[in-house]
Backbone:
């Protein structure tokens, strides 16, 4: 059911006693996610909302609760340490929501986890959700989602909600929605997620949302052309952005021709993707493709 | 964050990289004196956060202090326009007066983050002194790249390979190796996003000197480099962008008349695209952020309204952590404070959207509501 998470996912929240960590741990629980532990150094022995045990270390939390997903809200100066601690405990899926992690920290962390049996999503991402498993591991509003057969992958947060909102409004549900993050260097890229959607029997098609900056969309286009076996609708935002300016996301900056929206759109079109003309057309475009499949 | 050439050279010198002797001048008189101190001949370099200064008249060789004074006077206080600045240019408040160099060869050396490699790479080229993007486009074979392991760092075999490709031997190769190692130290210790020496010259005596330097810092790392924060020069940044940045609001000034207030970078980019597709021109990119308060939203709207080109404001909020009623109250507050009545196109969705709409409806402001992105496009057509 969907990708990356299912009913057996047991969530550990790093930074659960912080303002954001607490708010979202609560919202994840309310959605039905199995939040089994929190970690805040120095606050071990306490409980979050009277039910979720808090531990001083990830190692201890895993031993006591068999947590298998780490969701991180740790502030930027300590985010790398939190990811490393989760990786050291071999938590297979680590999601880092934190925005503003120094890029060299992410670079080093990427190398540290390379040979460990773990996957990092983010940093600077909204997380992921699989509505069919009542599993929301991130900061997206749960209520806009609907169980279904369309996979969504995006570099953005609110724009993913916009996309999901449009799909749900047209009665199109989602298998899983993954926000991979808006930074220059991230743990899981488009191709990684597309491979999982390709292998997921419950995903019939994918809505893909890229943006200016870097060449990750072109790499995805190469993979789609060669190996992706499902229909895919693609939107690239930022065509109205000027060159050389960071558009909110650290990674959304035009540094050369290939970083422009037009180059990415061209690559995806060439790979056989159905191009979504403007952000207002995400739902209608996906619906046309979806209806043709069913 | 960008810093000036003279600041970048001070950093490089601290790490043992040779830079030309120089003085910083902020008046014609100082420039004349500095030229005198440097032996009567010098090159004047306008200090702005932009490349392409040569073509814009920001670099001038002077043969005497008497030549230096009027040349500096012409630069100081003016706005230098280059292909990297907007048409309004960047203000020149300082001139770097530098000794003339004896140039035998011009090389290029830089380190930046390569997104595909997910780590730093060192770039070197024999085609120094040129725009490296142009070199990359026209003769990519002349750029040599070494991906740098974040664990091992720059290795000796890599510096040997690069110096050989640059055609350096003997003492020049040794100097180049020292400079490469120092540059890697600068990049990692200071959390740079780019450090570039262009050109790195080889003098007639075979010495290597950093003739120009550029150093950009990773904004997200500044919390651990309080000393580097002081190198910021607000005069080089757009005033509104600087104000927004100090409030932790992501704002980029554009040329149109539709002020945009959005939460989330992706949705903000999408809003610009929708606005443009509707035939209107956005005045700005603005991501007010997730946890904004009424005050922060009001400040964001104030920044939008400070742009005199703005004739209407588009509010596009997908409420999550940021509640729509908070956003609405912030907008209304700023409108009241500014005492203005510019048309508003408002689209609220998510947390407390209904409450937000009520606040707008009861405010008496000229609001057109939109339910979705298509409505926004239609409403922009009506308010133009």
Residues:
């Amino acid at each position: 059911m969907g990708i990356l998470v299912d009913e057996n996912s047991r969530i550990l929240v790093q930074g659960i006693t912080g303002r954001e960590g607490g708010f979202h741990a609560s919202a994840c629980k309310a959605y039905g996610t199995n939040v089994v532990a929190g970690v805040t150094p120095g606050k071990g022995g306490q409980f979050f909302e009277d039910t979720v045990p808090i531990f001083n270390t990830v190692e201890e939390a895993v031993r006591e609760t068999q947590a298998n997903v780490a969701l991180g809200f740790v502030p930027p100066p300590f985010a790398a340490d939190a990811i490393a601690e989760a990786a050291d405990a071999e938590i297979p899926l680590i999601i880092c929501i934190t925005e503003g992690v120094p890029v060299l920290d992410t670079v080093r962390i990427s190398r540290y986890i390379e040979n460990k049996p773990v996957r990092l999503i983010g940093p600077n991402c909204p997380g992921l959700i699989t509505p069919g498993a009542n599993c929301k591991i991130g900061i997206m509003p749960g209520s806009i989602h609907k169980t279904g057969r369309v996979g969504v992958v995006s570099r953005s947060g609110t724009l993913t909600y916009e996309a999901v909102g449009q799909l749900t409004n047209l009665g199109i549900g989602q298998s899983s929605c993954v926000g991979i993050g808006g930074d220059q260097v991230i743990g899981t890229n488009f191709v990684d997620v597309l491979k999982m959607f390709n292998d997921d029997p419950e995903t019939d098609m994918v809505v893909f949302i890229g943006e200016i900056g870097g060449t990750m969309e072109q790499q995805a286009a190469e993979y789609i052309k060669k190996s992706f076996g499902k229909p895919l609708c693609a939107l690239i935002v930022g065509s109205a952005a000027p060159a050389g300016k960071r558009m909110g996301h650290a990674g959304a900056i035009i540094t050369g021709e290939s970083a422009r929206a037009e180059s990415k759109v061209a690559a995806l079109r060439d790979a056989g993707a159905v191009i979504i003309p403007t952000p207002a057309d995400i739902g209608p475009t996906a619906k046309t493709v979806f209806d043709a499949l069913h | 964050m960008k810093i000036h050439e003279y600041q970048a050279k001070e950093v490089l010198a601290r790490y043992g990289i040779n830079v030309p002797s120089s003085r910083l001048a902020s008046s014609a008189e100082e420039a004349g004196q500095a030229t005198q101190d440097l032996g009567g001949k010098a090159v004047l370099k306008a200090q702005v956060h932009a490349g392409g200064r040569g073509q814009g008249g920001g670099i001038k060789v002077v043969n005497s202090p008497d030549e230096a004074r009027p040349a500096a006077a012409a630069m100081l206080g003016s706005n230098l326009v280059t292909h990297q600045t907007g048409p309004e240019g960047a203000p020149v408040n300082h001139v770097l007066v530098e000794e003339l160099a004896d140039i035998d060869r011009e090389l290029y050396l830089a380190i930046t983050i390569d997104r595909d490699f997910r780590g730093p790479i060192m770039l070197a080229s024999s085609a120094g002194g040129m725009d490296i993007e142009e070199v990359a486009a026209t003769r990519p074979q002349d750029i040599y790249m070494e991906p740098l392991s974040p664990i091992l760092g720059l290795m000796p075999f890599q510096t040997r390979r690069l110096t050989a490709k640059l055609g350096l031997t003997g003492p020049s190769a040794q100097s180049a190796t020292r400079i490469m190692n120092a540059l890697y130290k600068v990049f990692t210790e200071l959390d740079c996003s780019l450090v570039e020496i262009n050109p790195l010259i080889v003098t007639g005596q075979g010495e290597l000197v950093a003739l120009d330097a550029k150093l950009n810092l990773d904004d997200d790392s500044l919390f651990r480099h309080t000393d580097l924060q002081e190198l910021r020069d607000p005069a080089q940044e757009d005033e509104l962008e600087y104000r927004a940045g100090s409030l932790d609001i992501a704002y980029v000034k554009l040329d149109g008349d539709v002020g945009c207030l959005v939460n989330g970078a992706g949705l903000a980019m999408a809003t610009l695209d929708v606005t443009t597709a509707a035939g209107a021109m956005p005045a700005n990119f603005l991501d007010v952020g997730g946890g904004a308060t009424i005050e922060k939203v009001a400040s964001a709207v104030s920044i939008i309204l400070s742009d005199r080109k703005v004739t209407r404001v588009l509010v596009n909020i997908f409420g999550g952590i940021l509640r729509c009623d908070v956003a609405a109250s912030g907008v209304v507050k700023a409108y009241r404070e500014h005492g203005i009545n510019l048309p508003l196109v408002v689209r609220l969705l998510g947390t407390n959207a209904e409450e937000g709409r009520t606040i707008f409806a009861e405010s008496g402001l000229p609001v057109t509501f939109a339910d979705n992105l298509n409505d926004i496009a239609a409403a922009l057509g009506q308010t133009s």
